[in-house]
Amino acid sequence: MIQTIIIGLLFASALFYVARLIYKSFVAKKGCGSNCKCGVDFSNIKPE
What we know:
48 residues
C-alpha cells in the first residue's frame, strides 16, 4: 500500500514538472533582468 502511494506521488510530481516546463515554454518573457540589451532597437544607430 505504501509503495503505491510513493509511486503515485512521484508520478504526480513528475507530471507537474513536465507541465510547468511546457507552460513556461509557451509564456513569453517580459524581459530579461540582465544587462544584455536584448530589447534595444539598434536600427537608428549609425556605424562608425
